[in-house]
Structure formats: C-alpha cells, structure tokens
Design goal:
Elements (H helix, E strand, L loop, with lengths): L3 E4 L4 E5 L20 E5 L15 H14 L5 E6 L2 H11 L4 E7 L8 H16 L1 H12 L3 H11 L4 H13 L13 E6 L3 H4 L11 E6 L6 H4 L1 H17 L1
Parallel strand pairs: 2-3, 2-4, 4-5, 5-6, 6-7
Antiparallel strand pairs: 1-3
GO molecular function, one term: hydrolase activity
GO cellular component, one term: membrane
Keywords: Hydrolase
Length: 245
C-alpha cells in the first residue's frame, strides 16, 4: 500500500520527496490546495507506505503512476525535490502523456559535482552507521523551527533503512542527461540563488525545448521549507501562465 494525501481540487500537482524524507517535507505546499489538487505521497518504504522487496528508480516511477491511477488522474504537474527530481524526470520520460508539466526544485539529471557527490556518499555512509544522526542533520537543515525539525526527524526514521539506502544509491547512479531533449512538456527549474553546487547542473537543461528558470534570492537548496512562500508562488505562476497559454 502507498500512502498519500489528496487535498483540494483543480489541476493536480504531485510532489516527490528525496530519500528518507517522506511527504512531510512538503508541509508548506499543502496551502496550494486552495487553488489546486495537491498530492503528497510517501514512496515505497517511506513514512506510512509499505516496503517493497525491490527498489529502483523505475520502481519509484511506478509508485508515482500508481498514485495517479488510484486518484483517477490522467495528467498531473509532477514536482520533484532534490533527488526526488530524479524520480520526477524518470517519470516524465517514461510517461510523457501523464506529465502535464514538470517542476524540479534543486534538480539535477545526474550527480556530477564534487559537493553533491560527497553529500550522497555521506548520506549512504550514515544510513548504515547512524541513521538517527542523518535524520537529525537533514531535519535541522530544512527548518529553524524546533517543532518542525523534530517532526521531520521522527518521520524520516519511519523509513525502511534498506529502501532509504537504495534510494540514495539508485539516484546516485542515475543519469538522464542524454535524454533531456525528449522532455517536451513545460519545465520549471527552481533553485536557491546560493545553491551553487547544484546549479552547476543547470546548463544540462539547455537542450530542453520549453524550460523556465526561477531563482529564489538568499536561498540555498531547501526551497520548499526555507522559502515556501516564494517556492509556492513560483509554482502557482508557472501553472497559471501555462494554463492560459
């Protein structure tokens, strides 16, 4: 069973979380449900979803499809955050007819910068040795509010350790950079102005025929939680403009 929240009505927007975090990382995106149908899911082995024996990018893509099928949704805006953007891109490539638009928050088609590489390696190392510390570090990096930090940390520790590790590993080795030209749908790239180690991947998206860049001033990587107002406004404007177009 896959757990997901289904809020509001209108154009569907489905959010895909990074390794370990579950749907709780999109706490502040729930407010978009006043205008849109917002779907916040826990991928296999995360949060309140069941654990599957096999884990891969392709299997996570099928998780996303299952949620859309269960919700009787033909097309949706697919939004992936950080490594969750890998799943979003893989879904858009596999099911372009189901992808109305694509939003990548701190997205990258492959891991090709030193700092990002080090972050993935550290994450995998800590999952095996001290997942509690990893959850604490990530939670504190996503909010200055103690209550929200504890909420994120607690929810991350619900993730199955094997699936959590495999999510990191699968996205660490994933590379869709040579297929980006096939993404014909409108794409929104959202980056924090100061997340230079991830923005190094930005030039790879120049081959996408319908791509828009939005940078949030004074922000690092954690745009959904650290600058939610600007992040949500960017998505709202992107969807509304494309709807009118």
């Amino acid at each position: 069973m896959l757990f997901y929240k289904d809020l509001g009505s209108g154009v569907p927007i489905l959010f895909i979380h990074p390794p370990g975090m579950g749907h709780k990382v999109f706490r502040y995106q729930q407010s978009l449900s006043t205008k849109y149908r917002v779907l916040l899911m826990d991928l296999n082995g995360h949060g309140q979803s069941d654990v599957r024996t096999t884990t891969s990018v392709e299997q996570f893509v099928l998780d996303v499809k299952s949620v859309l099928d269960h919700g009787h949704i033909e097309q949706a805006v697919i939004c992936g955050y950080s490594a969750g953007g890998m799943i979003a891109q893989a879904f858009a490539l596999a099911f372009p007819n189901r992808t109305l638009r694509l939003v990548l928050a701190g997205g990258f088609p492959k891991v090709s910068s030193r700092i990002l590489d080090a972050e993935f390696r550290l994450g995998m190392w800590l999952i095996k040795r001290n997942p509690e510390k990893l959850a604490e570090i990530i939670a504190k990096g996503h909010s200055q509010m103690k209550q929200f930090q504890l909420e994120l940390q607690h929810y991350m520790l619900k993730a199955n350790r094997h699936v959590w590790y495999q999510f990191y590993q699968a996205t660490y080795h994933y590379d869709c950079s040579h297929s980006l030209h096939n993404l014909m749908m409108p794409i929104l790239l959202v980056y924090g102005k100061r997340e230079v180690w991830v923005k190094k991947h930005l030039s790879m998206y120049e081959v996408c025929p319908n791509c828009t860049l939005y940078e949030i001033p004074q922000s690092f990587h954690q745009t959904p939680t650290k600058t939610p107002l600007e992040f949500n406004q960017a998505i709202d404007y992107f969807v509304r403009v494309e709807e009118r177009g």
